[in-house]
Write a structure and sequence with these properties.
heterodimer, A: 347 residues, mainly alpha, two-stranded antiparallel ribbon, B: 445 residues, 8 strands, 71% helix
């Protein structure tokens, strides 16, 4: 049961990264790729009806994490206190940027909210990558299952590390580059003409950086947290995951060169899912490794899970709720399918 | 007093109070927009469609504010109240996760369709999208109320070996009688806010002499809904909620009424300032025996005062609790009177020309917000000193690893952020109202 919920929460978080990832990425390229007001409105229109729904995956995943693993929620949310609060502020600023821009006519304020939207998207991508980096690297958990990290200490991976050290900065940059490519490809799918060309160029330029960072990231992870290889050695079939990751990178560059934006976007989605699956598989059954005395202090799915009865009951309504949610999303994306046009309703 | 605990409490109190300014209008306006859409449906009446679209724009701005201020609420369970989260997560994790899975997906997906899809959907499908947004927002309200009701009156749980509580009965949790009274009372309060806001904007247009066709619709729908729900707010929902408190939290009832001494035939205090040190009320104006009657339906029933309980069981801030409760009840009574007069004028066909009454409706706008806030303060201050009634004290629940300095930093951050949000919200809503229901927006939606 605990393993099942581990997979379900991981799947919800992965859905969040793939979905909100493309609108974060679209925000990251927003100022660079879209130069005219019409181009910017096209990007906003491409994400306008869906970004809020995408963000709900984060809230729903958070709620499900709380429900299934209360101690993990309590420990990690209080331990990552400052970066989480900053993520909240960035999410707020970003939401305001998107929604208010549409209400403003004065070019000064339009420019201001454009900047807010772009900067908060970039920072959020970095924060989420750094968060994953922290979970992989481990935190200074005490015997009671709690910890607290300052924002940074000396940027070294060691005994008294902060949220940011060289490794988590690296994972943050990997997330930014991957989501930038992901968002560019989404914008390419949803637009045509010059904007389509420019966002495709962004993805094309990001590709070699993405490949290089993936290799560096994997090496750094094995150095920082050598236990990540244990599960792979036990189940050799899991080495398919890195194969899929590099295969998806190959698919992306092939499809971008052929001008098949949808296929390239699918490749990017597979890449993100592959990276996240690889991380989740490496950690399991640990959900938050301890840097000191990991054998006893690490939080696992077993010592953080809610009671068995609650988990069983929850599975019933979770399945029902997810079927409904998938239905809404299919309906929503079908209603707004195709290239965006500027005439008509919205943004 | 541990200072981190104090800052954590102010942090939650401030963010939740600010947050609830928005969902009450979201939940109150959603059914009224469905009413407007329904009235416009049979004859495909453009005036009603314009009215519905106007409120959809206000709803959209308000909804975004509710979402961005709502996410911090869920986060704070973990960030600022981690010991409480660990203790109670096995039970209230159910309702909080269900809110995300059932309500938020429904609400957000259909809001996108509702705001941007009227032309693509056609009138009937668009009506359904309005209904889905209404259901989503009310479902969301239920799961939050069920969570709070469990903290007020915990049911359906067993103690686990590690000291936490775990779910034993799902149905006891969602059928908690406290939750259903509180839900009915709270949702009725939300519709009152929606109705007063709608009537207020309608009155503004009639007094201004612009957009009068829509203004009349707003006033009519607002006054009729306002009357119905102001009455429901008192009876049966307020009465039922009050009796839940009397049965399960008698010490809270005594503190709400500032009844220091147990007595037979207890009076109902209308006005007066509680003096907790001297255990009396200064210059009281009272209705004799009324508290006994309202609580137990007998004029001479015994009502327990604060003296019947040890002081460490008393709510900590009796004066604020007393005022919150009295402001809520007092305003609720004024709402009924206001809407009765307005409804009478509407029935006689004189309301739209009675400028004095339109002025009253226009200026009444802030008061439902005050009453709803005071109601929530009554519920949450009344629960003190407990975080989970009878199981966990508030002083045990906060995040002990997060220092007061870090909490103060984020509290100041939220104060600044919410000040900016509040100003932007007022600016945008003001602009929508000035543009009116008929004018075409040049760049907006």
């Amino acid at each position: 049961m605990e393993t099942l919920w581990f997979m379900l929460v991981a799947a919800m978080l992965a859905a969040y990264v793939v979905l909100d990832g493309f609108d974060l990425g679209a925000g990251a390229i927003y100022l660079g790729a879209a130069r005219t007001n019409d181009d910017r409105r096209k990007i906003l229109r491409a994400i306008g009806p869906v970004w809020d729904g995408n963000e709900v995956w984060l809230v729903a995943a958070g709620g499900t994490l709380y429900f299934a693993f209360p101690l993990l929620y309590a420990s990690s949310f209080s331990g990552f206190y400052l970066p989480l609060m900053m993520v909240l502020w960035l999410l707020m600023m970003r939401g305001i940027g998107i929604e208010l821009r549409a209400h403003m006519e004065n070019p000064v304020w339009v420019g201001f909210f454009d900047l807010i939207f772009c900067v908060s998207s970039v920072l959020l991508a970095i924060f989420f990558g750094a968060a994953l980096g922290n979970v992989v690297r481990g935190v200074p958990l005490g015997a009671d299952g709690y910890f607290f990290e300052p924002l940074w200490t000396n940027f070294r991976v060691g005994a008294d590390n902060g949220i940011l050290d060289w490794y988590t900065v690296l994972t943050g940059v990997i997330a930014l580059v991957s989501l930038t490519a992901h968002g560019s490809l989404y914008v390419a799918v949803k637009t045509d003409g010059e904007l389509n060309q420019r966002s495709r160029t962004v993805a094309l330029r990001a590709w070699p950086v993405q490949v290089l960072l993936t290799i560096v990231g994997l090496a750094a992870t094995c150095y920082v947290q050598p236990t990540v290889l244990d599960n792979y050695e036990r189940h050799a079939i899991a080495f398919l995951i890195p194969v899929v990751v590099f295969g998806s990178l190959g698919l992306m560059i092939y499809a971008i060169r052929k001008g098949q934006d949808k296929l390239a976007f699918v490749g990017s989605a597979i890449y993100i899912l592959g990276m996240l699956t690889g991380a989740a598989f490496a950690l399991y059954p640990v959900v938050l490794p301890a840097t000191a005395d990991p054998a006893h202090r690490s939080l696992t799915i077993y010592n953080t899970a809610a009671g068995r009865h609650g988990l069983t009951v929850g599975f019933t309504w979770w399945i029902l709720g997810m079927i409904l949610a998938l239905g809404y999303f299919v309906l929503l994306f079908r209603m707004f399918r195709g290239k965006v046009r500027l005439e008509g309703e919205g943004y | 007093m541990d200072s981190a605990l104090l800052v954590d409490r102010i942090h939650f109190a401030f963010t939740i109070t600010f947050h609830y300014l928005f969902p009450q209008l979201t939940m109150g306006l959603a059914p009224l927009i469905v009413v407007l859409k329904t009235l416009g449906l049979p004859r495909n009446d453009e005036v009603y469609h314009q009215a519905a679209r106007f409120w959809a724009r206000i709803f959209g701005i308000n909804f975004v504010m509710g979402v961005v201020t709502g996410i911090p609420m869920e986060f704070q369970f973990g960030t600022n109240w981690s010991h409480f989260s660990r203790f109670a997560g096995g039970v209230i994790g159910q309702t909080l996760a269900m809110e995300g899975v059932f309500a938020f997906f429904l609400e957000s997906a259909f809001l996108g369709l509702f705001l941007y899809g009227e032309k693509r959907l056609g009138p009937r499908a668009h009506w359904w999208s309005a209904v889905a947004v209404f259901l989503g927002s009310w479902l969301s309200g239920f799961f939050i109320i069920a969570t709070d009701a469990w903290m007020q009156h915990p049911v359906g749980f067993v103690g686990a070996k590690d000291g936490s509580v775990q779910l034993s009965s799902f149905w006891e949790l969602v059928l908690n009688p406290w939750a259903w009274w509180q839900y009915a009372h709270n949702m009725s309060g939300a519709v009152i806010t929606g109705a007063f806001v709608m009537a207020s904007v309608g009155a503004f247009y009639l007094l201004w002499g612009k957009f009068e066709a829509q203004g009349r619709i707003f006033v009519r729908v607002g006054v009729v809904a306002g009357l119905i729900f102001s009455v429901l707010q008192l009876f049966p929902t307020g009465d039922g909620q009050g009796r839940m408190v009397a049965v399960h939290q008698p010490v809270t009832l005594a503190a709400m009424e500032a009844l220091f001494v147990s007595q037979t035939g207890a009076p109902l205090v209308i006005l007066g300032q509680p003096n907790v040190d001297k255990r009396k009320i200064d210059n009281p104006i009272e209705v004799p025996n009324a508290l006994s009657f309202l609580t137990y339906r007998q004029w001479k029933a015994d009502v327990q005062g604060l003296d019947a309980f040890p002081p460490d069981m008393w709510p900590e801030n009796i004066a604020l609790l007393y005022y919150s409760y009295h402001i809520m009840v007092g305003l609720g009574t004024i709402f009924i009177a206001t809407m009765l007069v307005a409804s009478f004028l509407l029935w006689r066909g004189k309301l739209f020309s009675a400028r004095w009454m339109l002025w009253i409706l226009l200026l009444a706008l802030p008061f439902p917000y005050i009453a709803n806030t005071a109601g929530w303060m009554t519920a949450e201050l009344g629960r003190q000193p407990w975080l989970v009634y009878g199981l966990m004290r508030t002083a045990e629940g906060y995040s002990k690893m997060v220092s007061a300095g870090n909490v103060m930093f984020t509290l100041l951050g939220f104060l600044g952020m919410y000040m900016v949000l509040g100003i932007l919200f007022l600016f945008l809503v003001h602009r929508e109202i000035e543009h009116g229901p008929v004018a075409e927006m040049s760049a907006g939606h």
